[in-house]
Structure formats: C-alpha cells, structure tokens
Amino acid sequence: MNVQLAQLIVNGIAVGSIIALAAVGLTLTYGILRLSNFAHGDFLTLGAYFTWLLNNLGINIWVSMLLGGVGTVAVMVLSEKLLWSRMRSIRATSTTLIIMSIGLALFIRNAIIFIWGGSNQNYNLPITPALDIAGLKVPQNQLLVLFLAMLAILALHYLLQNTKIGKAMRAVADDLDLARVSGINVDSVIIWTWIIAGTLTSLGGSMYGLITAVRPNMGWFLILPMFASVILGGIGNPYGAIAAAFIIGIVQEVSTIIPGLGSQYKQGVALFIMILVLLIRPKGLFKGTI
C-alpha cells in the first residue's frame, strides 16, 4: 500500500473515532428525544475548553477530561431543564426544536469566544515524538485517542446491553408511549440520555484537542460529519453511527490525495458518499429506530 495512503487511513481512523463518540450522543438524543440537536457540536467544543481550562490550571490531562465531561453534562442537563423539557410539554414541532438548537449553538459558541477569546489554544502537555510503525509516522496522541474511543465504545455497549438503564433506553427509543405505560421512568431515561451523550461528546472534544488545537469553531466543523454518520448508520442506531463515523473519517482524509481536491473539500466528499449510499439504502447502512 502507498505510504501516503496508509498514513491518511491512519489519520482517518483517529478522526473517525472522535466523530463516532460525538455521533453516538447525537443519535441517542434523536432516537430517544426525537431532537435534531444542532448545538451538539458546540457542546463538543465546550467539553474541549473545560478540559483545556482545567489542564492549564495544573490539573492532570486525564482528570481534566473527566471533570470537563462533568461540566459538559451539567450544561446539557441545564439545557434540558430550561429548554427541551418545556418544548416537549407544549409539543413543539420539530422545526421549532431545530431552530432553537441552532440558536443554542450560536449562544454557546459566542459565549466561548467572549470568555476565552477566538484564538487557538493548546493543552499544557510535553511534546512527544511520533512513533514509527511499519514506515508510518503515528503521533502518540492519535494512538491514545483511538484507545480511549475503543474503551468508551465498549463501555457504551455494555451499558446498553447489560444494564437496566440501557434496556430502558432501548425501550424508550422503540416506543416512548409504550415504555411509559409499561412502568418505565421516562424522565429518568431522558436524564441518563443527556449524561451519556454529554460524557461521550465531551470526551470526543477533549480528544480532538489532543490531535489538533482547541478552538471555538471546532465543533461546528464536525457537526456535518456527525449528522452524516447518524443518517448513514441508521437514525437512532448507535452502532450504525459508530461504523458510519469510521467510514466518513477515513473517506474524508483519503479524499485529499485525489487531484484537484484539497483539505477544504473533505466534508463535501464525505457528504457525497453519504448521499450515494442513501440512494441505494434509503434507511442507511443499518436499521434505525425510526
């Protein structure tokens, strides 16, 4: 295999693992709450900034990631209490919810710029040399990102398949009204959905900061690949979103070697692949909950 191509595939796997974590949170909120949350990318950014802030206060990067996740979850739960629960109570239309989520995204992004400025930030970490693996230069941070993403995905699988709350979440995603009359505490499931989505999304943002830089628009540039992963993988299907995220991450990176296509076209190529697949399989690669 061409060394350049192999290098791009490795980069794509690292990016795909980050998109996967964020896309899982996005597909869970849609599958359970029927909410297309365009603020999801900015929650990812918020998690990265919380991690950066704590890390630059002298706190260990892994502890900073953990606490950054707690902060992100707190803001997500606050938005649930102040916005989304009220919108559900008045049975707001999906169009209203989308417009509100876009407004929330702009609010979070501009709040980040107001508080921390618009310039790029970096974690306070020692510089580590890239590893030479079979002729490929693989930054150690990319390996850490992939390892952490795999751990998070395995933990999510265990939670969804083997815990009481995971089974309740799957029941609510299949049929909310039936789950409610069956005695499932839907309000508790909703809070747990935000906790899981916030934790995974914040982790994705923190890991993205490891391989790039922390900047106010980082989540905005990932929101389209996130939605593409959710749709391509089957709406509401977390496993489908994970598989589609790796496909999109690799396609984005590999497309840069095509003559005439630079890095600025990566998202366009990924969305084109999504459209191409949907023309053949309109419901996505895997069965969704919708």
Automatic annotation (TrEMBL):
It is found in: Cell membrane. Keywords: Amino-acid transport, Cell inner membrane, Cell membrane, Membrane, Transmembrane, Transmembrane helix, Transport. InterPro entries: ABC_transp_permease, BCAA_transport_permease. Pfam families: BPD_transp_2. It is a multi-pass membrane protein. The keyword Transmembrane helix applies. The chain crosses the membrane at residues 12-33, 53-77, 97-116, 143-160, 189-211, 268-286. PANTHER family: BRANCHED-CHAIN AMINO ACID TRANSPORT SYSTEM PERMEASE PROTEIN LIVH (PTHR11795), HIGH-AFFINITY BRANCHED-CHAIN AMINO ACID TRANSPORT SYSTEM PERMEASE PROTEIN LIVH (PTHR11795:SF371). Belongs to the binding-protein-dependent transport system permease family. LivHM subfamily. This is Branched-chain amino acid ABC transporter permease. It comes from Plectonema radiosum NIES-515. The lineage of its organism: Bacteria, Bacillati, Cyanobacteriota, Cyanophyceae, Oscillatoriophycideae.
